[in-house]
Amino acid sequence: MLKPGSHPLRKLPFPPSADFPDLSKHHNIMKNHLTPGVYAQLRDRVTPNGITLDQCIQTGVDNPGHPFIKIVGLVAGDEESYETFKELFYPVIKERHNGYDPETMVHPIDLDPSKLAGGKLDEKYVLSSRVRTGRAIRGIPHPPMCSRAERREVERVVTDALQGLPKDLEGKYYSLKTMTDKEQDQLIDDHFLFDKPVSPLLTSAGMARDWPDGRGIFHNDKKNFLVWINEEDHSRIISMEKGGNMKSVFERFCRGINEVEKLIQEKGWEFQKSENLGYILTCPSNIGNGLRCGVHVKLPKLSQEPKFNEILEKLRLQKRGTGGVDTAAVGGTFDISNLDRLGKSEVQLVQEVVDGVSLMIDMEKKLEKRQSIQHLIPK
């Protein structure tokens, strides 16, 4: 353990003012809150794992962002980063999470799928439904900063737990390092494989080190429950299926995640979690429940409406192309998902997606009949 205030690598010879990064052309959230005073206060602090502020902000320093696409510009090297550097992390969280204040607020957790109202979406419009989240193992630094041994330990802990899943969730783990060409081709065909990060946002954060060591993919035999290991977080847990039955997807998601948590606890491990931040993950944008509930939905007419983006914002939803972040929509088909992660429970967020997508499908049907949608637009 390092002494508080000591730099893990060497004593820095210059004062913090001389080390302050040039953020003059930057548009990320980190830049909005990293003043010379905050930097001076935090530069020489380290977490118990020896992680520094400069390691956490490097991705935001290297990637200025875009005036219209505001990235966070900050990652947590470990669970303790959120508290050790809270003078920066907390204001960033407050801006990114719609005013949520970690100093005074408590994050609700609710994985009871019986509370979801409705959940069966019109399959003429909804092509597929999916719920995913991340979970990190307490006591091990996050992927940007962990050592090779720590990454391999995450792989061991999670794969051990997956072997105890009930019959309908049982499956096979494929290590990226040892999988055969045939297995790789099948995972690509199934759209399950994740690739080595190439985005500068991820590579400058340290996500691609030692690739593919310690990484892999688990899926059940029915191919509707997946776990990614050591991608951007220790684990990503995904429930998905074709069509619009979000209720079924969410039920399997809750059961699967509760089973995995129970199984790792039986071996003496636990997930990173706190009352004010919920489940703790690498990127501050994903803390809370880390939940992304999304559907691929056809909205060719509604998406041409001038108020489309405003409607999404009012419904607290976001759109992507169906190829993921930074991809364009093809043929009016979008990946629509929840915008919020923190301050609302899993049930609340899935309900917002179900209700919001149902409303947008109603609008699409009206537009097909050349009827007005004005009365349906949220105020």
Global mean pLDDT = 92
Rg, rounded, reads 21 Å
Oligomer: single chain
Give the count of helical stretches.
Answer: 12
Instruction: Name the structural class.
Output: alpha+beta
Uncertain stretches: 1-7
> Helix and strand string, N-terminal first?
HHHHHHEHEHHEEEHEEEHEEH
- Could you say which overall geometry the principal axes of the C-alpha atoms support? globular
State the distance separating the first and last CA atoms. Answer: 54 Å
Assess the beta-strand content as a share of residues. Answer: 5-15%
Share in helix: 25-40%
Biggest sheet strand line-up? 2-3-4-5-1-8-10-9
Q: Count the beta strands.
A: 10
The profile of the biggest β sheet is:
8 strands, antiparallel
Structural account:
The chain has about 375 residues and is α+β, with helices and mostly antiparallel strands. It is about 30% helix and about 15% strand. It is built from 12 helices and 10 strands. The protein has an 8-stranded antiparallel sheet with strand order 2-3-4-5-1-8-10-9. Helix 7 packs across helix 10 (about 245-265). The longest helix has 23 residues, at about 345-370. The radius of gyration is 21 Å and the shape is globular. The termini are far apart. Mean pLDDT is about 90; it is low at about 1-5.
